[in-house]
Design a protein that fits this description.
The chain is globular. The protein contains 13 helices and 10 strands. The model has no long low-confidence stretch (mean pLDDT 96). The chain folds into 2 domains: 2-37 and 147-340, Rossmann fold (3-Layer(aba) Sandwich), CATH 3.40.50; 43-144, 3-Layer(aba) Sandwich (Rossmann fold). A 6-stranded mixed beta sheet has the order 1-2-10-7-8-9. The chain has helices at 2-10, 43-56, 73-84, 99-107, 121-132, 139-146, 155-162, 182-193, 210-215, 254-268, 274-292, 317-322, 328-340, and strands at 16-19, 27-33, 66-69, 89-94, 111-115, 135-136, 173-176, 199-205, 248-252, 297-303. It binds pyridoxal-5'-phosphate. Pyridoxal-5'-phosphate is lined by residues 41-43, 72-73, 143, 177-183, 230-232, 273, 275, 304-305.
Length: 345
């Protein structure tokens, strides 16, 4: 506990970056830059919370192997904390996982264990943990409860505190994605607990089950091709996704998310990941609606991870062509949003 708290004490909060929208004088847009955590994404907060929760529950102790089902950011962040606690760490990942990600997990001393189908990772993680006398962290179950939703400098409390000196300090909307669902649960609960007027919008890939489940709670899974936007959008409704705290869901095509990640990267002068693009697309829709209704206010969203992780995908023209993503018309629509203040239909 002391090691994790000392690490936290050495860290600074992440920046809340204003995004200029000169065409919309009455609406302000901000992105909370979670890419500036030591492990490069918002999963740094989750990993810290999961380790503290597991330690307090007596689930992990000296020498125990930590196992997680994750092919991405969570595994990287958990490997960082496992190394801090001198615990072995194994990420159970699909065989198709990009070599850059495997390298990032291994950089922090973690190891990868491969499964053939992504859906097998959950059961295989549990089996492996049982076999090794270790602990399966299970981000998809515990994300919504490991974080102190009423405060303790969670992401929501940090956002509201950093907004205090802004012209419209209480956001009209907070826009985030859902992977585990933990971020939307924390922000939604915090906003309601503090009786803010803020509403929570989840920007969800079209291929994801979450927006379908939100509209019809009997829908639990979706078949077909999965989204290419890493970190968000799932084929099964994860236990940490709490639909009741979400006021609105916006389904975003992958091509729009990728185009938006590229536009946002150009406007901020730094590369942002795909799910930040998904967020921006939803922000542009909400800002357009607010402008049409003559509303004044602010919108806050999240820069979830660093775009350098996607140099050979979303930011590679060859990759876009190979995967059939024609981003130009979507980038043009977003550029028009910024110059005219309306996202063209
Ligand atoms: C996990 C993740 C999200 C979604 O956050 P959750 O709290 O898990 O819902 C968004 N973007 C990226 C890059 C992520 O890794």
């Amino acid at each position: 506990m002391r090691r994790i708290e000392a690490d936290y004490n050495r860290s600074a909060d992440t920046h809340l970056i204003p995004v200029d929208m000169p065409a919309l004088a009455d609406i302000a847009l901000y992105f909370k830059d979670e890419s500036s955590h030591p492990t490069g994404s918002l999963k740094h907060r989750l990993a810290r919370s999961l380790f503290l929760y597991a330690l307090c529950n007596g689930w992990i102790g000296e020498g125990m192997t930590i196992v997680e089902a994750s092919s991405g950011s969570t595994a990287v962040s958990e490997a960082y904390f496992a190394r801090m606690l001198k615990l072995p760490f194994i990420a159970v990942v699909p065989r198709s996982t990009a070599p850059e990600k495997i390298a990032a997990i291994e950089f922090y001393g973690g190891r990868c264990h491969f499964v053939d189908r992504p859906g097998d990772a959950y059961a295989e993680s549990q089996r492996l943990a049982d076999e090794l006398g270790g602990h399966y962290m299970d981000q998809f179950t515990y994300a919504e409860r490991a974080t102190d939703w009423r405060g303790n400098n969670n992401i929501a409390e940090a956002i509201f505190a950093q907004m205090q000196r802004e012209p419209c300090p209480v956001p009209r909307w907070v826009v985030c994605g859902a992977g585990t669902g933990g971020t939307s649960a924390t922000i939604g609960r915090f906003a309601r607990y503090n009786r803010h007027e803020t509403r929570i919008c989840v920007a969800d890939p079209e291929a994801s089950v979450f927006h379908r489940h939100w509209a019809d709670r009997s829908v639990q899974t979706v078949d077909g091709p999965t989204s290419r936007i890493e970190g968000i959008g799932r084929a099964r409704v994860e236990p940490s996704f709490i639909p009741g705290v979400v006021d609105r869901m916006i389904a975003v095509p992958d091509v729009a998310s990728i185009a938006a990640a590229r536009v946002l990267s150009r406007r901020l002068g730094r590369r942002c990941g795909g799910s930040s693009g998904t967020n921006l697309w939803a922000c542009a829709l909400l800002a357009t609606e607010m402008a049409e209704a003559g509303e004044r206010g602010s919108i806050v969203s999240i820069l979830c991870d660093h775009g350098d992780r996607y140099a050979s995908t979303y930011f590679s023209d060859a990759w876009l062509v190979e995967n059939g993503f024609e981003v130009a018309p979507w980038e043009a629509r977003l550029d028009a949003f910024f110059t005219e203040g309306r996202l063209p239909a």
